[in-house]
């Protein structure tokens, strides 16, 4: 008589098998971390000999960017790649800042890091959350804000406009609402130009200043932000989905490096400030 194996038993076997695989991958990561640390230990003396600073923002940016590009090809969320690289860079900095005789990852080092984190969080909490900027923004003439937004978006999207990336939304009115700042614009792609439209939006992308900046700077991907409902789409569903797909595929690498670095710094600063505010109990 053939006895069939029950579904829970099969599921338990599958779970066990997957966990063995996960353990192997985790082991491989630690081996890779050890290899990275060996290379970093060669970087420290070379930087000291040339009087180069410990932190190199341009290099860190390139490290993040390489990781994000690879992550995009493997369908790994950009935010996960960013967190991983942040951890690796923090580890490299701790490793280089340590006294040569100190034990790696010793309790002293983590207590120090904790104190540094607390100090950094206190400073970050001095940055008011974007919703508190509303008062100051209301003093700026609306025409100035409109021109600024139009120019900033035109610059960010310049190469996409030239390369016809935005053809699917030609002549469609798409709105952007920065909820916490109480600002919104309706925009229209007109040939190779992006211009403000006076008509009502056919589809609207809504989000906080921080989340919209995280999207623009590619620190977080559209899929994650929409899935977590940190960004919302309203209005024409088909147009909304087209906009969402375009946001995911925009050729970010064609932006000038300076603009990318500025966007990353601003987005990281706002995200860190938001996290620091959120940790207050
Ligand atoms: O390349 C270096 O100079 C390093 O110290 C390594 C590293 C990294 O972890 O990738 C760490 C800190 C620097 O700011 C830049 C990069």
Automatic annotation (TrEMBL):
Task: Name the Gene Ontology molecular function terms of this record.
Answer: chorismate mutase activity
Chorismate mutase domain mapped to chain residues = 9-100
Class in the EC hierarchy, top level: isomerase
Its EC number is 5.4.99.5
Q: Which Pfam families match?
A: CM_2, SCP2
Q: Which UniProt keywords apply?
A: Isomerase
Which Gene3D superfamilies does the UniProt record give?
Answer: Chorismate mutase
Superkingdom of origin organism: Bacteria
Q: Span of the secretion signal? A: none
Give the protein's recorded name: chorismate mutase
């Amino acid at each position: 008589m053939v006895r069939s194996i029950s579904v829970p038993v099969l599921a338990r076997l599958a779970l066990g098998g997957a966990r063995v695989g996960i353990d192997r991958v985790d082991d491989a990561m630690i081996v890779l971390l050890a290899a990275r640390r060996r290379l970093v230990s060669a970087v420290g003396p070379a930087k000291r000999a040339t009087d180069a600073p410990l932190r190199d923002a341009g290099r860190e940016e390139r490290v993040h960017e390489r990781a994000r590009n690879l992550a995009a090809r493997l369908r790994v969320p950009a935010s996960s790649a960013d967190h991983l690289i942040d951890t690796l860079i923090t580890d490299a900095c701790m490793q280089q800042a340590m006294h040569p005789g100190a034990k790696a990852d010793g309790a002293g080092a983590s207590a120090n890091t904790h104190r540094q984190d607390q100090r950094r969080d206190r400073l970050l909490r001095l940055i008011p959350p974007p919703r508190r900027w509303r008062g100051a923004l209301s003093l700026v003439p609306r025409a100035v804000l409109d021109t600024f937004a139009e120019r900033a978006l035109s610059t960010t999207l310049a190469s996409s406009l030239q390369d016809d990336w935005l053809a699917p939304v030609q002549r469609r009115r798409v709105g952007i609402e920065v909820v916490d700042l109480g600002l919104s614009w309706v925009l229209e792609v007109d040939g190779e130009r992006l211009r403000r439209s006076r008509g009502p939006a056919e589809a609207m992308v809504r989000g906080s200043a921080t989340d919209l900046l995280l999207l623009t700077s590619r620190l977080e991907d559209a899929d994650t932000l929409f899935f977590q409902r940190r960004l919302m789409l309203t209005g024409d569903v088909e147009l909304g989905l087209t906009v969402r797909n375009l946001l995911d595929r925009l050729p970010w690498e064609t932006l000038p490096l300076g603009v990318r670095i500025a966007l990353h710094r601003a987005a990281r600063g706002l995200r860190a400030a938001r996290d620091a505010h959120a940790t207050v109990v």
